[in-house]
């Protein structure tokens, strides 16, 4: 990893848009990663830095790049429960149904961690609730495993278009 990407990642983590503007040049690879596979966008989203995430997307960051575990910025936003970040990512082309290394999706993260507003948001945008992870578990199974009755109710009441 080069030093400039580390500086960009640090600015993204802090939400320092002015620093991002001064660090990013036309030849900056915004999808470059740190030693864990995190991109500046993944870090900004996981840190709930909406304006930094918005700037990175405008500058050309790919919302579907994943870390070394296969986790995307959208998955991180759903795990943490950041609806504004998730909406920004979705509106900028984030793949709602991307599966990480174990087959989990953003919807599964939301269900497992009781992020029920995120479940509603993802379903509104068309997330697929029929996908299975690598163990054959559905979003319903994962919500039930965690005792997320409200999440199950939301999933059951949503009818695909």
Q: Helical element count?
A: 10
| Pattern of helices and strands | HHHHHHHHHH
Largest sheet: none
CA distance, first residue to last residue: 44 Å
* Category by helix and strand content: mainly alpha
On the 0 to 100 scale, the average pLDDT is 94
Residue fraction in strands: under 5%
Radius of gyration: 16 Å
Helix content: 40-55%
Any idea what the shape is?
elongated
Number of strands: 0
Keywords: ANK repeat, Repeat
ANK repeats: 36-68, 69-101, 102-134
InterPro entries: Ankyrin_rpt, Ankyrin_rpt-contain_sf
Protein name: Ankyrin repeat domain-containing protein
Protein model, in words:
- This protein has 161 residues and is mainly alpha-helical.
- The chain is 52% helix and 0% strand.
- It is built from 10 helices and no strands.
- α1 runs parallel beside α3 and α3 runs parallel beside α5.
- The longest helix is centred in the first third of the chain and has 12 residues.
- The chain is elongated, with a radius of gyration of 16 Å.
- The chain starts with a helix and ends with a helix.
- The mean pLDDT is 94.
Task: Annotate the secondary structure layout.
Elements: H1 3-14, H2 17-23, H3 40-46, H4 50-58, H5 73-80, H6 83-91, H7 106-112, H8 116-124, H9 139-145, H10 149-157
């Amino acid at each position: 990893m080069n030093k400039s990407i580390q500086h960009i990642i640090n600015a993204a983590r802090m939400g320092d848009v002015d620093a991002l503007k001064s660090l990013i040049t036309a030849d900056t690879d915004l999808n470059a990663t740190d030693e864990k596979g995190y991109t500046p966008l993944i870090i900004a989203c996981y840190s709930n830095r909406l304006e930094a995430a918005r700037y990175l997307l405008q500058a050309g960051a790919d919302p579907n790049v994943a870390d070394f575990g296969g986790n995307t910025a959208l998955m991180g936003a759903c795990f943490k429960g950041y609806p504004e970040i998730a909406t920004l990512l979705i509106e900028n082309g984030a793949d709602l149904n991307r599966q990480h290394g174990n087959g989990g999706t953003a919807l599964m993260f939301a269900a497992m961690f009781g992020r029920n507003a995120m479940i509603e948001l993802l379903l509104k945008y068309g997330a697929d609730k029929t996908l299975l992870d690598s163990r054959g578990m559905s979003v319903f199974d994962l919500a039930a495993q965690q005792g997320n009755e409200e999440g199950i109710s939301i999933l059951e009441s949503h009818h695909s278009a």
